[in-house]
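Pasting as-is:
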Amino acid sequence: MSRFFSQKYSALEPYTPGEQPRDMKYVKLNTNESPFPTSQKAVRAAAEAAERLRLYSDPECTLLTEKLCEVYGLARDEVVFTNGSDEILNFAFMAYCDAEHPAAFPNITYGFYPVFAAVNLLPYEELPLREDFTIDTEAYLGIHKTVFLANPNAPTGIALRPEEIARIAESNPDNVVVVDEAYVDFGAESCLPLTRKYENLLVAQTFSKSRSMAGARLGFGVGNPALIRDLNTIRYSTNPYNINSMTLAAGVGVLSDEEYTRKNCLAIRENRAFAAEELKKLGFTMTDSLANFLFARHPAVSGETIYRELKAKGVLVRHFTKPEICEYNRITVGTREQMQILLDKVKEVLEEHL
C-alpha cells in the first residue's frame, strides 16, 4: 500500500474472485458462469445499443424495469437495478447497517459479505452453520440485526424454504432481511412473493448465472417501495448511470427470451444430477445443492490435491482454504461434455493416489 492509503482500511482483506488464468485452455468450472451462450435476442439488442454509446444510459432503467415487471408480475416502484447483484448487496450494507444495526450472516457463505461490512466500517457477526452445513434458522430469530442470507447458500448450494425466511423476517420487524438469490433459478424456491407481505424483506437476484450475462454486470432488487426508495437514494448518491446502455438493452432482450432461460436451467439441473451421481460412484460425498454447482469432497484425497491436479490437467474448480471446508471443492455445473471431461480427469487423479 502507498503511504497515502487511509488507515481506516489498513486491515481490509479484499474479496478474492475466482481465478481467470490465461496460460492454457481450461474447462472452466470455478466461477459459476453459465456454459451456454447469451440469448441472441440479448446480443442483438446490445449491438444496436452500441450505436448510441455517445449518450448517457437511462438512469431510471425504464424499458428494462417495464419488462422485468411484466415477466415477474411486479410494480415499477418495487424494483431497483444495479451493476450486478454485488452492488445491491453493498447498497444494503450502506443503507441498513450501522453501529445500532450490525450485520449478521453465516460464517460460511458468499465471501463478499464480510468485505462489504469491513469496507463500510460496519460491525458484523458471523453465525456458524450446523455440522451438515445447513443454516440454523433458530439462530437468526429475534437477532435484531440486519440479516444477509444467500439462498441457496454459497459455496454449499443448500437452500432454505421461504417459510424459514418468513420466520426470520417476522422475528426481526425492525431490521431488514436481505435474501441473495443469485442461484435460485436452478431448483430453489424464490422469496419474491414474500416481499409484499414483509416490509423488511429485500430480495436480490442477478442476470449473471441463469441468463448467461455474467460479463454484462446486471442485478436487481425487489422489495417494499420504501426500501427501493432507500436504495435509489444510495444509487443516485454514488452513480445514477450505474447500468450501461448495452447492458440495459441486453437485459430487455434476454427477458424477451424466457423459454431459452428455462431450457438452460433445466439442462443445468440435469447435468448436476448426472455429475453428482457419477461422483458418488467414485466415492465423493456432497451437499444437496440446488445451485449451478456441486460442493464435493473425497474421503481419501484432499480437496487441495484434487484442485491442483485437476488444474494441471486443464480443469478449473474452486478451492477454499477455510478450515471447515478445505476438503471440499466447488464445481460449476457445465455442459454434459464438460461434466464428462471433469469426471474423466477426476478418475485420473484418483488412480494416481489410490
